[in-house]
Design brief:
The chain is α+β, with helices and mostly antiparallel strands. The chain contains nine helices and four strands. α7 packs across α9.
């Protein structure tokens, strides 16, 4: 069963107590104008119109509601949606004019308006889950990028230190630079935050970074 079929089955099973709402729903199913009597009539009419000519994609795949019918009925659907603050967009599908909603907030509002509160809540929950997943992915990508940059920097530093050793220039540098070179060679996989803790004398991350930069500059000067 498709998402739209499941939703329409749910909508048609909604029991309406007020006669005016039942009349509004029937007019919506037949896409006929209706004069509202109570505040729920508009939602009932749109519920009927959706059952008659609407479709909705599974929000796990995409946010999309579409109405396909004759232009006169589309104009009426547009008018009612706009009156409820849910303006639709125009489109063409197989040479036929359509109205559609792609904004998830509008779809939430529409679902609530037509009485599909269960689906509206599901959509909100799905948005939260997607948002959390997107945030987690962004953090993971950022962490991977940071690790990649740190690994590249470490490789450059190690190469520079080995060059200084090969050219016998390292022994001519200050004791703190020699110490830094030895510790970096011993722990090439460590980040600066980890590496600074390997020094017998406390050193800040910026101080360590400065020393490593000095070492690469000395090697580049060869």
């Amino acid at each position: 069963m498709s998402y739209s079929t499941d939703l329409k089955t749910y909508l048609t099973a909604i029991e309406t107590k007020r006669q005016c709402c039942r009349d509004a729903y029937e007019c919506g199913v037949n896409l006929r104008p209706y004069e509202s009597v109570c505040a729920q009539d508009t939602g009932a009419w749109l519920r009927g119109a959706f059952v008659a000519c609407g479709t909705m994609s599974d929000p796990a795949k995409q946010y999309y509601i579409c109405f396909r019918t004759k232009s006169e009925a589309l104009a009426l659907i547009r008018e009612i949606l706009e009156s409820e603050g849910i303006p639709p967009s125009d489109g063409v599908w197989r040479h036929q004019q359509i109205l559609y909603l792609r904004d998830s907030s509008k779809i939430e509002d529409f679902m609530a308006l037509i009485g599909a509160s269960r689906y509206s809540l599901q959509l909100m929950e799905l948005k939260v889950i997607k948002g959390m997943s997107a945030d987690a992915n962004r953090r993971t990508n950022a962490d991977l990028a940071n690790c990649s940059r740190a690994a590249d920097a470490s490789a450059r530093q190690v190469a520079a230190i080995k060059k200084l050793i090969k050219t016998k220039k390292l022994q001519l540098l200050s004791a703190e630079l020699v110490e830094t070179a030895e510790i970096r060679l011993q722990y090439p996989e460590m980040s600066l935050d980890e590496l600074k803790n390997m020094f017998p004398t406390p050193i800040t991350k910026s101080g360590l970074n400065h020393r490593l930069h000095r070492l690469t500059e000395e090697a580049d000067g060869e």
